Amino acid sequence: MEKVDIIGGGIAGLALAGILDPGRFEVTIYEQRPELPTVGTTLAMWPEAQEALSELGILGAVRSRGAMIRTGALRSPSGEPMLSMEGEGLLGVSRPALLERLDAAVPGSVRRVVGRVEQLPGGAGLTVGADGVNSVVRSNLRGRHSAARPTPFLAVRGVIPGTPHPQDIGEYWARGQIFGLAPAGGGSNWYASFRSDLGPDKVDVADALEVTRSRYANHSRAVREVLAAATPENSLAQRIWICPPLTRYSQGNMVLLGDAAHAMTPNLGRGACEALIDAVTLGKLLNRLPKEKALAAYGRKRVMRTQLLRFASSLMGRVALAQSAQPVRDALVKQVGNRLSRARERAETSK
């Protein structure tokens, strides 16, 4: 039995604990929270992430708690569609519901330790950093130069009762501001991002909501109604943090997963997906290969892909939150939307 210490009991940590062979590994999860969160925004599960959930045996259970997202649009602040989009079976599920199902998939043989990890426990054959953007494992692995840094942007988000109208679903782009709205398992998931001096560490949710309502006061009726229904009890607010690029995720007996390896801005909606895929990929490799070969294969499969997504997400964020050249940006988006619409019409006509 090889001893595996997983630092962090979030999405990546629970998924890895759920897929590691309990007959081969003695697993301990270290998590600072005494219980799972009850408030959290909706996460978009792309097809690859749904495959990872299937590997864990919980895809059906997660689908029963979520909602399929098939349509949406990039919109102006008034709600006018600039670019319509059709999804390929995107699954939206709240973070608390996803964590609940992942937690239930962890074998009973896994040991749980509650408390903040300031210094890594010793004696493990493998120490896994699944401890987020401010990872203690990453600082031990890559040094101080790998420390996370705050962006200028605040993320305010939540879930309110009631399903959004299809004509309101999508992402609203303004000058230096984003607002998103999507269905969320019987409710409406919303998020807003903009430059703010609040934080960077602890952000008061009530203060953040007040600022958000002020910043989006001239947006569409749908946006204003969502923000009017948001409360500190069903909302979250935090500074967006990122970590610098890494060229490798493992060294010796330490390895990184999820945000500890590739924390990215939320603009592509890929953070939670890639954390799941990291965990399932690593777990399957460890189950069938010696540790050194498994870690090498994990690096080949995951480093380049996730670093490219980290870069692409940052680039999308700069475009969406542009403070200048907004008219040019919106004109280009509308032009792309018009061309795609004409292409779809031609395809329908030719059938």
From TrEMBL:
Pfam families listed in its UniProt record: FAD_binding_3
Residue ranges annotated for the FAD-binding domain, each copy included: 125-304
Gene Ontology MF terms in the entry: FAD binding; monooxygenase activity
Keywords from the UniProt entry: Monooxygenase, Oxidoreductase
This protein's name: Monooxygenase
Organism annotation: Paenarthrobacter aurescens (Arthrobacter aurescens)
Source taxonomy: Bacteria, Bacillati, Actinomycetota, Actinomycetes, Micrococcales
